[in-house]
Amino acid sequence: KTVCCTTFPQETKGWWNSPLSTSGRQVFGAPHSRAVMRILFVCTGNAARSQMAEGWVRHLAPAVAVESADTRPAGLSRHAVAVMAEAGADISVQCSKLLSATAWRDADIAVTLCGSAREECVALPWSPATQREHWPIADPVAAPAGDDSLAPFRTARDEIRARVEALPATVENK
Question: Is there a catalytic annotation at residue 5?
């Protein structure tokens, strides 16, 4: 079962409510009676980056079907949960899952967020219709400990949000 985050009133207008036509199919903001864009985010641990990406899509574009997965289970990072909550997106109900537990073959867009996931995913028998993207975002979990342990998570969160917001233009230009 898919659990969506709450969409806050101040964020009810934007690209996610506008139709985006690609290959004759309406995507972001599509009513449930039409084809819904399916996005998959993959990272090695599915602990932070891919979880935040899934959370942003759920928060900004609740009509889009989104999942995240990993190639090696690591569990959801409490720091990722904390920084997303700071930004108004609740990912606490999400869980870390293996790629094989998702509908990855049905993805319209598959985004890898780390080099090792990209390398492992290249060999998968993707549908020719699946658009594959790679977002090389630094792993906040692997960042050196500093005065503010959440700082690398905030940086990743903000970069991921910007990329999620730019995703419709990327889809439109393919």
Answer: no
